[in-house]
Design brief:
- The protein contains 4 helices and 10 strands.
- With 194 residues, the chain is α+β, with helices and mostly antiparallel strands.
- Strand 7 and strand 8 (149-161) form a beta hairpin.
Length: 194
């Protein structure tokens, strides 16, 4: 009897461990649903605001100019450690002419590249496009190195959706973490605006 009880307890524990699901997050403005990584930390809005402030200061010190509207909506930031994070943001963006969003994207890439280069690191970048659940994203990848050693990589996915500039930033220094974040993103779903 004890053996059967022990086996049942083991099966129950194993079953609950195997069925551990990531928490879903839904952004109704853009009809996006993604499962968040359970064992990563969800950051507070205070930490997100502080990171944004520090980022703007770095941009300013680099001599670059980036028009920040103050209307940014931080959807979430999940962080594994100080360097590894997955961040999603939307910014209301009403085009005043057709393809205005597309026209502004090259400038943004140049600013990002220049900001990192101004910090004395070697910057390698690539650009491409990727479709996720029928939504086409502009992809901008940066690899930052110093003295021949890779410091980190940043992968930015960006698209114009339902009147929003939708931006996903993934920072990491581990190919395993990169693959975890990309798998999560590529499994996300989009539906018509709620």
């Amino acid at each position: 009897m004890k053996l059967k009880l022990l086996i049942l307890c083991f099966i129950a524990i194993l079953g609950s461990a195997c069925s551990k699901k990531n928490k879903p997050f839904h952004a109704p403005e853009i009809g996006w649903t993604i499962d968040l990584i359970n064992d990563w930390n969800i950051e507070s809005t205070r930490k997100i605001d502080k990171d944004l402030e520090e980022g703007l200061e770095i941009i300013e010190r680099s001599g670059e100019h980036l028009n920040i509207s103050g209307q940014e909506i931080g959807l979430f930031v999940i962080r594994k450690n100080e360097l590894t994070k997955f961040q999603a943001t939307i910014i209301p963006f009403k085009e005043t002419y057709e393809n205005e969003w597309d026209d502004k994207y090259p400038h943004l890439k140049n600013v990002i590249y220049s900001v990192f280069a101004a910090q004395g690191v070697q910057v390698d970048s690539t650009s491409s496009k990727e479709t996720i659940a029928t939504i086409e994203f502009e992809v901008f990848n940066l690899k930052l190195s110093q003295n021949g050693r890779t410091l980190m990589e940043q992968n930015m996915y960006r698209t114009y959706l339902n009147g929003y500039d939708f931006i996903i930033n993934m920072s990491h220094n581990s190919s395993k973490d990169k693959e975890t974040m990309l798998t999560l993103l590529r499994a996300s779903k989009f539906n018509k605006k709620d």
